[in-house]
Specification:
Layout: H1 11-30, H2 41-58, H3 61-65, H4 68-76, H5 82-99, H6 114-124, H7 129-177, H8 186-237, H9 242-250, H10 255-262, H11 268-275
Helix pairs in contact: 2-7, 2-8, 4-8, 5-8, 5-9, 6-7, 6-8, 7-8, 8-9
Length: 276
């Protein structure tokens, strides 16, 4: 009954990344060029290696190694379903009002949102409201810091990748100009030199900067969802009416989703009785 819907696969982000690759490949193929002409491993090493080097310079090694989960979230996670969060909190409020706060402990196993579980357990343990709120807001601040670091790292790569693309181009031009005795090698040499600029622009504008914006969006949505949990848990602890809690928390949602909250919910067991 209280199952909290976990974040699922974000198809849009994956589609966007695939579309970036498709657009570039299609542009190259429609121009009559061969696929091999757009692959140069030295250019890839220059751009990717240089960008990674700037990341290691800008952030401690431990921080860089711990960013994998943040980037995975940016690619595969959807924003939290705040309407579902409110639904869970309202049902918990109904249980607390009917059976008392201690009865909430039996429902924690049904809730997949660890932040709600933390708040419920602290409530059951009799934590004072001011300490409960302070603890939950400390977790919110920690989450915001993690997301800020992850976004900052992506912004760093997005900022320096085009620069290393240009550096690779300059290195290629210097090498090409140093071998002007062979005119036939000038064209291919120029093409390879320009590939580093292409790689740098693609890494920055096709991957890192869009994912940084996605992390920023997810951060805002998750912080809103966590704020809803804080308000809801404090309302449950103070014994507020579940309808009042639902109305108060619904203010965090867009107008259309608020209307959905006002519709009467039919519990699964009641629905089964009606069907029978």
């Amino acid at each position: 009954m209280m199952k909290f819907r976990s974040w699922g696969l974000e198809i849009g982000t994956l589609m966007g990344l695939v579309l970036v690759v498709f657009a570039v490949v299609y542009a190259a193929a429609s121009g009559g060029g061969s696929a091999g002409a757009f692959v140069d491993y030295a250019s890839i090493v220059c751009v990717v290696g240089g960008s990674l080097a700037t990341l290691l310079i800008a952030y401690p090694l431990k921080t860089v190694l711990n960013l994998g989960g943040v980037y995975r979230a940016a690619v595969v996670r959807r924003p939290p379903d705040s309407a579902a969060t409110i639904g869970v909190l309202v049902e918990l409020a109904e249980v607390a009002r009917r059976d008392g706060l201690l009865a909430l402990e039996a429902h924690t196993a049904e809730i997949e949102n660890p932040f709600i579980v933390t708040g419920v357990r602290m409530t059951v343990d009799g934590t004072r409201p001011e300490i409960l709120e302070e603890s939950l807001r400390t977790e919110i601040e920690a989450t915001a810091r993690r997301h800020t670091i992850g976004k900052g790292a992506l912004d760093t790569v997005g900022k320096y990748a085009p620069a290393f693309g240009m550096i690779g181009t300059l290195v290629g031009l210097v090498m090409m100009l140093g071998n002007m005795n062979d005119p036939d090698a000038i064209g291919p040499g120029m093409a390879v030199a320009l590939l580093t600029t292409l790689y740098g622009a693609l890494l920055a504008n096709g991957v890192c900067l869009p994912l940084a914006d996605k992390l920023s969006y997810l951060n805002k949505q998750e912080l809103i969802d966590m704020e809803i949990v804080v308000k809801g848990i404090l309302g449950i602890q103070s014994g507020d009416n579940p309808r009042l809690i639902e109305q108060r928390l619904g203010m965090y949602l867009p107008a259309g989703e608020r209307e959905a909250l006002r519709r009467p919910r039919v519990r699964p067991e009641v629905e089964e009785d009606v069907l029978v």
